[in-house]
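User: tokens in, sequence out, please.
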């Protein structure tokens, strides 16, 4: 990775959340409105969601949204809902840094595992997750109720 300062921390202010919008939108392309994004993240935070921000030399270069869960089948675990490095900062090890920070947070919060659900079309992401030693343990089956 090129030399520079990496800082990862939770977004706490509306300004932090809104600043994440361009990066998150690279993953969640259906999002179109910064204000609506900020309001939704705030609602999700009320339900346990954390939005982590990776800054590289002060510039937002990655984001990850996650929650802690506990179930009978898996015990306590971290569910990573959103994980993205900005297109301008890919292939420089920043995704590794963000992933490793998430794993450290999960361990520190007493989680037995960390889980990510990734769309079947995201082959580059799958290569990354496999390289990070993640394994496919189940299928996620979905029934649209619309």
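Assistant: Sequence out:
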């Amino acid at each position: 990775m090129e030399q520079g300062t990496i800082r990862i921390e939770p977004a706490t202010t509306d300004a932090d959340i809104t600043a994440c919008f361009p990066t998150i939108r690279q993953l969640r392309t259906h999002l179109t409105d910064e204000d609506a994004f900020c309001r939704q993240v705030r609602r999700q935070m009320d339900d346990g969601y954390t939005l982590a921000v990776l800054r590289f030399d002060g510039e937002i270069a990655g984001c990850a949204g996650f929650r802690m869960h506990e179930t009978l089948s898996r015990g306590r675990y971290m569910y990573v809902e959103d994980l993205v490095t900005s297109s301008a900062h890919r292939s420089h090890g920043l995704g590794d840094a963000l992933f490793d920070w998430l794993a450290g947070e999960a361990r520190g919060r007493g989680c037995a595992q960390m889980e990510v659900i990734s769309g079947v079309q995201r082959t580059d992401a799958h290569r990354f997750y496999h390289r990070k030693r993640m394994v496919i343990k189940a299928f996620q089956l979905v029934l649209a109720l619309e």
